[in-house]
Task: inverse folding
């Protein structure tokens, strides 16, 4: 009987193991779940309603679901709109550039409406005239630049605002107050006050045309 030699092979510690590490086995189900969920999440994102109900219909007509426009103002290639929920928007026909919600709109908007609220001031500034305040917004991005609040016990009347000498004159009826104090003048830089030149376009050193803005207009006869 011939005994064949038996070859003994020592294990090679450098050889890769076919057994998955425990950490990999734990992470694999999570990774697979994410791969399966990704298309579902993408589909849900695609059908998610746009913020504020924005949508564009045929011919680049902009609308908001469940809301109606009260005032529309073309401004520098954009369209600025005041809506019945007190939101002001600017769109360029393809997208909505910005939204701004007016404070306490429910207190005055249903009764007043949008007459006279949107007022362009030039130099890329929009005045939003409401009974409690006048606010200046930058048309490019909707940035709030300044605010002029109404005097205590008084309100602004947007529908009575007029342009005069490069400024917007807004009536502010107040009981037992001189009529000259019931007019507020604003421009793109905010309220026009004594010693401040409207629009800043006068020659340096020249006396402003109307140093006292409460007397810009003559008393009606």
Result:
């Amino acid at each position: 009987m011939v005994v064949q030699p038996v070859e003994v092979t020592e294990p090679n510690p450098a050889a890769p193991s076919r057994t998955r590490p425990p950490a990999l086995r734990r992470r694999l189900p999570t990774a697979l779940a994410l791969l399966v969920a990704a298309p579902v999440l993408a589909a849900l994102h695609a059908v998610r309603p746009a913020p504020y109900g924005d949508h564009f219909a045929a011919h680049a007509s902009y609308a908001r679901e469940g809301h109606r426009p009260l005032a529309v103002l073309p401004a520098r290639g954009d369209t600025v709109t005041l809506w019945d929920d007190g939101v002001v928007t600017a769109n360029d026909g393809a997208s909505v550039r910005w939204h701004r919600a007016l404070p306490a709109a429910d207190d005055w908007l249903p009764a007043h409406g949008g007459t006279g609220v949107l007022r362009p001031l030039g130099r890329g500034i929009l005045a939003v005239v409401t009974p409690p305040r006048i606010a200046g917004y930058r048309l490019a991005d909707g940035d709030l630049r300044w605010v002029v609040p109404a005097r205590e016990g008084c309100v602004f009347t947007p529908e009575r605002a007029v342009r005069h000498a490069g400024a917007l004159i807004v009536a502010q009826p107040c009981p037992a107050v001189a009529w000259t104090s019931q007019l507020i003048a604003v421009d793109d830089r905010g309220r026009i006050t004594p010693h401040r030149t409207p629009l800043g376009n006068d020659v340096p050193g020249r006396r402003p045309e109307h140093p006292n803005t409460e007397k810009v207009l003559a008393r009606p006869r």
Q: What stands out?
A: The chain has two helices and 14 strands.
